[in-house]
Amino acid sequence: MGFIVQKYGGTSVGSVERMQAVAQRVKRYADEGHALVVVVSAMGKTTDGLVKLANEISSNPSRREMDMLLATGEQVSIALLSMALQELGQPAISLTGAQVGIVTEAAHSRARILRIATERLERHIQEGKVVVVAGFQGVSSGDDLEITTLGRGGSDTSAVALAAALKADFCEIYTDVPGILTTDPRLVPEAQLLDEITSDEMLELASLGAKVLHPRAVEIARNYGIPLVVRSSWTDEPGTWVVSPQSQPRPLEGLELVRPVDAVEFDTDQAKVSLLRIPDRPGVAARLFGEIASQDLDVDLIIQSIHESNTNDIAFTVTQASLQKAEAVANAILPALGRHQDPTLETAEVMVDRQIAKVAIAGAGMIGRPGVAAQMFTALANAGINIQMISTSEVKVSCVIRATDCDRAIATLCQAFEISQSPLGQSSSAFIPPKTGGTPPVRGVALDLKQARLAIRFVPDRPGMAAQIFNLLAQHNISVDMIIQSQRCRVMNGIATRDIACTVAQADAEPARLALMAAQTELGYGEVTVNPAIAKVSIVGAGMINQPGVAARMFAALAEQRINIQMIATSEIKISCLVDEDKAVQALQAIHAAFNLGGTQSIQVPA
Ligand code: ADP
Ligand code: ASP
Ligand code: MG
Question: Which of 164, 300, 323, 467 is 20 to 30 Å from the Cα of 10, by its Cα?
């Protein structure tokens, strides 16, 4: 007999029949002697319907009233499921988030869970009842008892947080697909089921658009070491386990308010190769990294910034020992890349820099906290350290700086983020490379269609600019992703400038542009532009660490489809490319096929 938290998503409780099927499954578990807390989402597309209603009344409804409205969806489900259980003779009781005591911050529409009271839940369980809890909602701390919601898709987070608070044996997420697949089966029907995936990989996939799990749910499972499984509510198949490393015991108070950064990492064994003014057309990155891979050189960071006119810059880092070969490859390839190019283009050029170091901050707690990257840039700026390259993932921000600044940068970052233990050095990877040779380099491919690209032109190249820009966006509560600073310096009115590009949620793009334009004179940069018609396609896998050729294979798949890559950003276990929105699905399918991730059977997703 065990203690299990189960969560059923919208489709799984989308009709009376589905609700009854869920009740039967729950009763079966209860009959086997398990204690159960069951978390449910709103029925079917209820939450979308409520959002639509609100938008018919107001183009900018108050967040408080939105929470009041959206929280009703889950309340319908808990009452109906509880009735369905009682109808089967199973004692049950439904509770809202507030009734349980799921206490959150007061931040409407994106509240983080602070603590969960367990007394009432434990009492009902003792009485032999199944407790049915409303997902996605909580109540603010303090006297006001405001109803809050956790953000769209947040019922997964409610369930895993309950499992942590109740010290449940494991948490089951029931949904409309057989588990976690190599990609979204609605876009790629031959997507294959994974038996298991590490929480690090799943965290990246979830943050990069794989909707099957809410990233914060994965974060909690990882922090508290909760075994988590995603299964179909239509079958008894085993589904996919998300495996977490052994966790240190942590307090349950401030459950989701973990420190944003758990580690400062550095790597001084790095050198940078930049290709400036190479043609902006499909196939260029594929060609370059194909050659690099054929020399068996492992690249670490790859950055391709936004293009100015019809040329582009690509920069990458390699170990010092690989620099000579990498430089030779880059120089050899330059004439070939330029062959068909427009005679009006400026000449391309290769630049290398041995005197660099990479410093990074890492931690799942930075997800959804817009100020963390800005805090890093501020700390470096205050120490007078100029940032040459920036590359971000949802759980890591890496900066390339001058090698001579490295020690100071580490000291400054450890102080800023209160990291006392000695930083992870040299090998730089916080992820343990898989031991078995058979692990495929890529586990999953994700697509995010909800992002827009923001470009800030002619940003003065001096310490503190990135800090000011991203602090400004953080003050407006805008989370940024994929921050990329161009390699090329251009002189504008006598000062050296670079372009900075980043991606933001589409809904934040216009507010971000307005906020940046308002500070334009003060900060001294040029035009700020928004392109909403982009999509981000990413590959994720811990097996890509120290495995040359993975990036080249991804870029080649895009090149074969004549899909142009607008921006590239990498971290140890992921590579993201920005492409045109109307090529997004084609890009996803091509990349999925290029890594042989498809199975022979199509996955059927219930309507
Ligand atoms: P629920 O309502 O049960 O929470 P969601 O719609 O939030 O379900 O998430 C399940 C959906 O996630 C699937 O129907 C599928 O379309 C989508 N999805 C995206 N990426 C993946 C993936 N890698 N594996 C499985 N499903 C995925
Ligand atoms: N009902 C909420 C939503 O649609 C929460 C959830 O389903 O996880 O976003
Ligand atoms: Mg969901």
Answer: 164
Any idea what the CATH number is for the domain that residue 358 is in? 3.30.2130.10
Which region among 237-246, 287-296, 389-398, 400-409 has the lowest average model confidence (pLDDT)?
389-398
Are 287 and 231 within one domain?
Answer: no
Domain co-membership, 210 together with 332? no
Put residue 344 in one of left, alpha, beta given phi > 0 → left and psi -120 to 50 → alpha: alpha
Question: Per the structure block, which two tokens stand in for 401?
Answer: 């700086």
Instruction: Judge contact between 382 and 278, C-beta under 8 A.
Output: no
Total domains present in the chain: 2
Choose the final residue of a domain: 243, 274, 304. 243
| Residue 417 CA from chain centroid, whole number | 21
pLDDT in tens, 91-131: 999 999 999 999 999 989 989 999 999 999 999 999 999 99
Q: How does pLDDT run across 17-76, given as a tens digit for each residue?
A: 999 999 999 999 999 999 999 999 999 999 999 999 999 999 989 999 999 999 999 999
Task: Pull the structure tokens for residue 19.
Answer: 């609700």
Domain encompassing residue 143: 3-243
Q: Residue 436 falls within a domain, yes or no?
A: no
Domain membership of residue 413 (yes or no) is yes
* Contact criterion met (CB below 8 Å) for 551 and 565: no
- The CA-atom distances, in angstroms, between 269 and each of 162, 302, 399, 467 are 43, 16, 14, 26
| Ligand 1 in reach of 597 Cβ (< 6 A) | no
Convert 280-330 into a string of H (helix), E (strand) and C (coil). Answer: CCCCHHHHHHHHHHHCCCCCCCEEECCCECCEEEEEEEECHHHHHHHHHHH
Residue 56 shares a structural domain with residue 196: yes
Q: Chain centroid to CA 185: how far? A: 19
CA of 208 to the centre of ligand 3 (A): 14
Residue 564 has pLDDT above 70, yes or no: yes
Could you give the CA distance from residue 130 to residue 91 in angstroms, rounded to a whole number?
Answer: 6
User: Do both 151 and 211 map to the same domain?
Assistant: yes
Domain-embedded: residue 600: no
**Ligand 1 pocket residue status of 41, Cβ below 6 Å:** yes
Near ion ligand 3, which residues have CB within 5 Å? 9, 153
Q: Among residues 412, 156, 476, which one has the least CA distance to residue 261?
A: 412
Is 180 in the same domain as 326? Answer: no
Regarding the beta carbon of 516 and ligand 2, being less than 6 Å apart is answered: no
Does residue 454 share a domain with residue 323? yes
Structure tokens given for 84: 């369905």
Q: Taking residues 338-352, what's their average pLDDT?
A: 70
Taking the centre of ligand 3 as the mean of its atom positions, its distance from the CA of residue 135, in whole angstroms, is 11
Token code pair at residue 213: 């799990």
